[in-house]
Structure formats: structure tokens, C-alpha cells
Design a protein that fits this description.
Largest sheet: 7 strands, parallel
Strand content: 15-25%
CATH topology of the domain at 2-185 and 217-245 and 281-301: Rossmann fold
Shape: globular
Bound molecules: nicotinamide-adenine-dinucleotide, thymidine-5'-diphosphate
Oligomer: single chain
Number of strands: 13
Structural class: alpha/beta
Number of helices: 13
Helix content: 40-55%
CATH class of the domain at 2-185 and 217-245 and 281-301: Alpha Beta
CATH architecture of the domain at 2-185 and 217-245 and 281-301: 3-Layer(aba) Sandwich
Distance between the termini: 50 Å
Radius of gyration: 19 Å
């Protein structure tokens, strides 16, 4: 079985590559990544050095190079995760989001269709559905209503995959997952940013009133869901993936739990100006993936968060290197005028 993982040096991609080598050791996995600011080869270097995984540094928007790769390798399965993934960055500039998330997906679809790739799993987000009020949950048929340029670019790419399924009888599925957390998470997103800032004694910039709600899923549980969709999911279908109701929490509560785990004081929290069009609440109904593919999340939030905090304590060098250089100019731009 020849498998391609795009975005394999990013947060979820690198966790997926580790997961696949454990769960499906006979699979021949190619890890593709451009190594943008968000990609870090160290996340998968042990697997690349041991020869368990082959690494390709390629740009998914480069149609000639991608076509050549698919022609050579004849993949049976593609997990497509490569993307620009941070909402705040998409508010500062949307250009790369359209290029990577929309054009990049189209380039991969063209190559996969032309070279008869067996199956294509497109990894997307619940953010394509927009924002929820205090109750209810998104189902797979909820109309798309993205509010950020990031979410809009993901919605466009989802529709492109689904259109290929209809037009070409292409064997693709789309997954829409809630917020992930876990190891190798780039420290620009809420949980790793707040863990590492607190460890450094820096302020935790909580947007608005801190009552925006996210449904958190431990990244390994997401990987489990993706493997099930790849092996047993139906073509042309969308599958929501998300945490249990105990993992649906306001940012304020997640922040409190992080400070408690680290033994840090509450006065590190600094309420700052809100994100424009900040989605109030996300939650997904996961009945479809439970009933069809037998998937449920296994990791309770308090356990997953404790493991995540411990990982950042044990891997200070990993995030210390990231939180310098180019990262600082983004941090300055994003947080300066709040
Ligand atoms: P990430 O930003 O950590 O990783 C993205 C990876 O894509 C990086 O390694 C980057 O180098 C690579 N990449 C970017 N542009 C590329 C290009 N042109 N060619 C090749 N590689 C390129 O993101 P993540 O959090 O791991 O998210 C992975 C996927 O899952 C994304 O598609 C995202 O939309 C989706 N998703 C993320 C979450 C979440 O909570 N993080 C939730 C639901 C869905
Ligand atoms: P984030 O991790 O950026 O994910 P997303 O926007 O895709 O949900 O943000 C999670 C929540 O945390 C979201 O409600 C915005 C909030 N947030 C802050 O309050 N402060 C921050 O510095 C960041 C990065 C996020």
C-alpha cells in the first residue's frame, strides 16, 4: 500500500505519520511538506532517518512537480493535510490561504485523478460551517457559512473535492474536525501558545471576554478517525469529527486548567481586543462517523491536556527554537494593537 501524507511535517500531519507507522507498519508512507514556517522536519526526523518514511520537500501548488510525483509513485491513498491553518494569519493576509488551500488542493486532485489514485481523504475543519449560538451542533449537511479567510479557503477546497467525486466518480471523502491539541502543535494556536507563554512567565492574551467555546480533540483520536475514513469511508461523503461534550469548553476555562497544571498565577491572563468576526462557538454532531465507522474519541480532555502540558515541559528545546526568529515578527504584528 503506497500512501502519501501532505503537510506531514505540520502538527496533525506529523502525528498522523507516527500513527500510521505504528498502526499500519507495512504501508509505504511518503511524507510531503514544503516546510513553511509551520512545518518542522524534526517532528518526523526519527522516522525519516530510520527509513520507515520517505520525505519529499515539495510545494503542492507546483503542478508539474506534483504530477511527476504521482506519475512515479502511483499512490493507493492520499491524506491531504497541507494547508495554511491559522485564522489570525489569514486575517492579516489571505493570499497564501487561497494559493495553498484552494489551488494546492486542486493541483493534488488533478494529479490524483489523472494517475488513478485509489482513495483521497481531504482533511478539513468545522470552521467551514461558521459560528453556533449557545446550543446545537453542526451536522454534515449544515450550510457552509465561513467567517474567516482561513475557513473560506477550506470551504472552497472541500467543495472542489466533492465536485471531483461527482464529476469524475473520484474516490474522495472530506473530514471536518473540531480544534485539535497535543504534541508538536505550533505555538501560535491557543493551547501551545498559552502553555509556553506561561512557562516563560509571559502574559496569556485572551481574546474578548474569553467565553468563545471550542470542542477540543486529542490529535491521536483525530488520526484514528482519519484512518477509519480512509479504509471504510464512502466516496463523496463528508464526516464530522469532534470531541465529547466534556471537551466543549470556553477559552477562559481552558486557560485556567493550563495555569493550574503548570502551577502558574491567574494574573498572567491578559484580556485583549477581540479577533474580528470571532466565531462564538463550535460543536459538531458525530453520529455519522460513530454509526458508520465505529469511531468515538477516547481521550478525556483533562487527561489529554495534562499529557500535552507534560510534553511541552519535556520538549522545551523544540518550541524554544520556534519561538524566535520569524515567529517574533508575526507575534508583534498580531498582538501589538490589541
Ligand atoms: P499546520 O499549520 O501545523 O501544518 C500545515 C503543514 O502544511 C505545514 O507543515 C506546512 O509546512 C505545510 N504546507 C503549507 N503550505 C504547503 C505547500 N504549499 N506545500 C506543501 N506543504 C505545505 O496545520 P495543522 O494544524 O497540522 O492542520 C493540518 C490540516 O488539518 C489543515 O488542512 C487544517 O485545515 C486541518 N485542521 C486542523 C485543525 C486544528 O485544530 N489544527 C482542526 C481541523 C482541521
Ligand atoms: P486558535 O487556536 O487560533 O484556533 P481557532 O481560531 O481555529 O479556533 O484559537 C482557539 C480559540 O482561542 C479561539 O476562540 C481564539 C482564542 N485565542 C485567544 O483567545 N488568544 C490567542 O492568542 C489565540 C491564538 C487564540
Amino acid at each position: 500500500m503506497k500512501v502519501l501524507v501532505t503537510g506531514a511535517a505540520g502538527f496533525i500531519g506529523s502525528n498522523l505519520v507516527h500513527y500510521l507507522t505504528k498502526e499500519r507498519p507495512s504501508w509505504k508512507v511518503t511524507a510531503l511538506d514544503l516546510l513553511t514556517y509551520a512545518g518542522n522536519l524534526k517532528n518526523i526526523s526519527s522516522l525519516v532517518e530510520s527509513g520507515q518514511v520517505r520525505f519529499e520537500r515539495l510545494d503542492i501548488t507546483d503542478d508539474k512537480v506534483i504530477d511527476g510525483l504521482f506519475e512515479r509513485e502511483k499512490y493507493d491513498l492520499v491524506f491531504h493535510l497541507a494547508a495554511e491553518s491559522h485564522v489570525d494569519r489569514s486575517i492579516l493576509s489571505a493570499r497564501e490561504f487561497v494559493s495553498t488551500n484552494v489551488t494546492g488542493t486542486q493541483v493534488l486532485l488533478d494529479a490524483a485523478y489523472k494517475h488513478k489514485t485509489g482513495r483521497f481523504v481531504h482533511i478539513s475543519t468545522d470552521e467551514v460551517y461558521g459560528s453556533l449560538g449557545p446550543t446545537g451542533a453542526f451536522v454534515e449537511t449544515t450550510p457552509l457559512d465561513p467567517t474567516s479567510p482561513y475557513a473560506a479557503s477550506k470551504a472552497a477546497s472541500d467543495l472542489m473535492v466533492l465536485a471531483f467525486c461527482k464529476t469524475h466518480k473520484f474516490n474522495g471523502s472530506v473530514t471536518r474536525c473540531t480544534n485539535n491539541y497535543g504534541f508538536y502543535h505550533f505555538p501560535e494556536k491557543l493551547i501551545p501558545l498559552f502553555i509556553t507563554n506561561a512557562m516563560e512567565g509571559k502574559k496569556l492574551p485572551l481574546y474578548g471576554d474569553g467565553m468563545n467555546v471550542r470542542s477540543w480533540l486529542f490529535v491521536t483520536d483525530h488520526c484514528d478517525a482519519l484512518l477509519r475514513v480512509a479504509e471504510k469511508g464512502r466516496a463523496g461523503e463528508v464526516y464530522n469529527i469532534g470531541g465529547n461534550s466534556e471537551a466543549e469548553l470556553p477559552n477562559k476555562e481552558v486557560t485556567r486548567m493550563i495555569l493550574e497544571l503548570l502551577g502558574k498565577p491567574a494574573d498572567l491572563v491578559q484580556q485583549v481586543g477581540d479577533r474580528p468576526a470571532h466565531d462564538r462557538r463550535y460543536a459538531v454532531d458525530t453520529t455519522k462517523i460513530k454509526d458508520e465507522l465505529g469511531w468515538t474519541p477516547k481521550t478525556p480532555f483533562n487527561e489529554g491536556l495534562a499529557r500535552t502540558v507534560a510534553w511541552y515541559q519535556e520538549n522545551r528545546e523544540w518550541w524554544g527554537e520556534i519561538k524566535s526568529g520569524a515567529y517574533l515578527s508575526f507575534y508583534e504584528k498580531n498582538y501589538a494593537n490589541r
